[in-house]
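Side project, low priority. Logging it here so it doesn't get lost.
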Amino acid sequence: MGDAALLLYDVPAFDAVRIGSQPDGPNFQGATTAIDLGAGPFARVTLHASLESTCFPFERWSEDPPPTGERWPPSCDAFDRNYEYVLDPPEEAGDPPGLELVRAITPFGGPLELAIDVTDVANARPGPHRLRVTISTWSDASGQVSGSNGGWDVTAHLAVEPGPPPRRVLAALPLFDGSQTSAAPLAPIGFEVPAGTTHTTVEYRATGHGGVTGAAGCALGAPAEEFCPRAHSIWADGVLFTDLSPWRGDCASLCSLATQTSASGSFEYCAENPCGAIESVRASRSNWCPGSVTPPALLDIPAFQAPGAHELGWVISDVADGGSWRISAMVLAYGE
């Protein structure tokens, strides 16, 4: 332990912040806070995040019981929702996109713990920042499919270990952070690789979402784009680099069966996703699973090793009308 242990410090971010589902309420679908990582360099920086739901354990329902005629406690969001952390999100139209640090999906009404290595981004961008957490929570006024005033409680901090960095990071360049709602390709995004760069990594995050059924190429009767295998063609400086197939076939691993027993009877549920239908929890999806982090595709593109101007683009094979792909992209530039 010795002196090294004394160098460790925490950077607080969110302390039991309630992310709400009411458009006119506080922290509607997200919250932003100021953080200061310090001067660096950093041997390791880890984002620790704790997500809590008032839906579970089920014994908590006695604290916030469903009103007459409703099926859920008002404060319970029983659905799976997009759950994201972005560093320095834009404040005004025209500002550059933020750097997405985490793309996750909440469980169906259950807790979730995250520990995400953000060392390279921290070494590229030490000092003060804004950090935003977003959860796309919505309420059901009738309380039938979710609570009438649902939400989530978020606590997060960054554990910082100063010291020699594991890699020499020259830049973290945000290229895109948003949703694509059609197959029409976006214009290629230009960026500048700094002098001294010897190699780069593109972090490309893509998850499909939406509730429109009957779309071509999707699972029979399933909503697009959530259950639609699509090809993502990645272009570098006008040349096709690779085709990706963003898909998760391991969602069944997030359903360990448990039994809840009460005076009115018993039922089975998934321990990791307690409020979800078992069949839905286990279903394969467009690169995400309920209660799980979606890691980025890490692309080492030889053309981007050369310092100077470059362009990144992508084309999605199809996007159903009413569906969307949530996409972010950043470039990390490294030197010797």
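Brief comment: The mean pLDDT is 95.
Revisit when time allows.
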